[in-house]
Specification:
Elements (H helix, E strand, L loop, with lengths): L1 H26 L5 H8 L5 H10 L6 H9 L1 E5 L22 H9 L4 E5 L9 E8 L4 E7 L11 E2 L5 E2 L7 E3 L4 E2 L6 E4 L6 E2 L4 E3 L7 E9 L5 E9 L4 E8 L14 E2 L4 E2 H36 L4 H15 L2 H15 L18 H38 L3 H8 L4 H38 L5 H10 L3 H29 L1 H5 L1
Parallel strand pairs: 6-13
Antiparallel strand pairs: 1-14, 2-3, 3-4, 5-8, 7-11, 9-12, 10-11, 12-13, 15-16
């Protein structure tokens, strides 16, 4: 028990270290969810990219991102939503003192309050307003009263998109590019309620550090005495919503399946993907493992017993051929021979569409037919390897003194080989067998890809190709856990096979 507890603690430490390494490796891979979004939407704006990275925490150092992934983080508070209102005829616009209530009715957002900017004054055919939610976040909107006014050449300010602050000491925005109409001799003035400063050329700066969103309002005049009003919102760090906590990876130990994250590729929780994929891979791995052992171990014993005979040479040649065959090439050849030419088995997939309507036996037969070719390809290389391992192990045991003693006692050759020699020759095979369990998952990547088999190997490949971080890290950690579990299983099998281990 003391040894098992020690091994368990080692597994925990190793998994923790691997999770840190894998997370850092994933972050350094080209492309992240926001970059993929940019690729799929070339019209996305620079400020939207910065905003998304801030909301997802991708602008923070890797170790902070790791803590957010492993332990969790508070969901950012949602900013006020500004509706895009259709132009309102000036005749329908109420008096200035009633315009705030009129806009609130138009917006119809009970969790947000609307307030007019500049007292509801119309400027350039627009009325500016600010929305504020319960968290104190502010967002600026504008209502177009008469679309013809902007064409007449009158001084006006166009709608300004939200400005996202990456670094407060370097933040600035040129407001002059949003001013239209008669733009000669412009002078700018910042509203007294707005933080920051604005220079004579219309460049606004705000070097303060504050989380959230704040509305900024200003006015501009030209040399003709015309005046225009404008407003925009400045965003800095997101404000956490302490009512909503996103649990991290470690909460899977408490049974929270949502802690594994969400797949951006499949648009499903990672937990929902793993169950069926692991079952599909096991449907390949277990038959391939058993098939390989049933063939390789007897042939390895026979090859060692008939050393330096033509049978030994033939078996070794076939073993090297099996080891050397590229999985992707052999899979395509098998598919061509048995599926395309002979048409004995399906070329790929896991089942025939609509087969469930024909009953359980039909489904079982169809699944078996689809699994034959990938199981054959997956097991052929392991037959060659285990045959060579078994042969080498038997060759070490057969010249031993206790084998000669057993023969001198008059025991039959069958009892000498299968009882005395085989039991001791299996000890090194146990290690190889236990450590081959996770490697079958790795070998299944190519096999599942060639045969379009929806297993965990194919899931791992798709996750890496699509930068699906949550899926890739979870699959890698599963494989690492299987390696350590294989080592633990090897220890137990040693004790079962070798009595000397029990005595020590």
């Amino acid at each position: 028990m003391r040894r098992m507890l020690s091994r368990f603690l080692q597994m925990v430490v190793i998994l923790l270290g691997l999770s840190v390494f894998l997370f850092a490796l994933m972050l350094n891979m080209p492309g992240n969810p926001v970059d993929l979004l940019i690729t799929s939407n070339p019209r996305i704006k620079a400020e939207d990219i910065v905003r998304l990275k801030k909301l997802k925490g991708l602008d923070k150092p890797w170790y902070i991102q790791y803590v957010r992934w492993a332990w969790g983080y508070y969901e950012p508070t949602r900013a006020p939503e500004v509706d895009i209102l259709m132009p309102i005829p000036e005749a329908e616009l109420p008096a200035p003192q009633d315009r705030a209530r009129f806009l609130s009715a138009k917006l119809n957002k009970p969790e947000q309050s609307a307030a007019l900017l500049f007292g509801g004054e119309i400027s350039g055919g627009r009325v500016w307003y600010v929305l504020k939610n319960q968290a104190g976040l502010e967002s600026v909107g504008t209502v177009l009263i008469d679309p013809k006014i902007e064409i007449t050449g009158q001084l006006a300010v166009s709608p300004i998109p939200n400005q996202v602050v990456e670094e407060a000491d370097k933040f600035s925005v040129d407001l002059s590019k949003f001013v239209t109409g008669s733009t000669g001799g412009l002078t700018y003035e910042l509203d007294v309620a707005s933080p920051g400063s604005i220079d004579s050329k219309g460049v606004y700066t705000w070097k303060e550090r504050a989380s959230g969103q704040r509305a900024i309002s200003f006015s501009v005049k030209n040399n003709l005495g015309e005046k225009a009003l404008g407003a925009f919102a400045v965003e800095q760090d997101p404000i956490p919503n302490h009512q909503l906590f996103n649990r991290g990876f470690v909460f899977i130990l408490l049974g929270d399946t949502s802690a594994l994250g969400f797949s951006n590729t499949y648009k499903r929780p990672v937990w929902d993907l793993l169950g069926g994929r692991i079952a599909n891979t096991l449907a390949l791995m277990i038959p391939a493992l058993l098939f390989s052992l049933l063939i390789a171990l007897p042939l390895g014993i026979l090859s060692a017993y008939r050393q330096h005979t033509w049978l030994d040479y033939v078996l070794n040649f076939l073993a090297f051929v099996g080891i050397s065959l590229p999985v992707f090439w052999f899979g395509i050849m098998v598919m061509f021979w048995f599926s395309e030419s002979l048409q004995w088995f399906p070329a790929g997939g896991i089942e025939t569409p609509g087969i469930h309507r024909q009953g359980f036996l039909a489904v079982l037969q169809d699944r078996f037919a689809h699994a034959v070719l990938p199981v054959m390809v997956l097991s052929i290389a392991y037959v060659g390897r285990w045959l060579r391992y078994m042969r080498a192990s038997m060759l070490e045991v057969l010249p031993a003194d206790y084998i000669r003693t057993a023969r001198a006692k008059g025991l039959s050759e069958r009892v000498v080989i299968l009882k005395h020699a085989l039991r001791n020759a299996l000890i090194p095979i146990v290690t190889i067998l236990a450590l081959s369990v996770p490697s079958l998952f790795g070998g299944a990547v190519l096999t599942e890809t060639v045969f379009s088999w929806p297993g965990i190997g194919r899931l791992e490949y798709d996750a890496i190709a699509n930068s699906d971080y949550y899926v890739a890290i979870v699959v890698f950690l599963i494989l690492a856990f299987l390696v350590m579990l294989g080592n633990l299983l090897a220890d137990w099998l040693y004790i079962a096979v070798d009595p000397r281990m029990r005595k020590s």
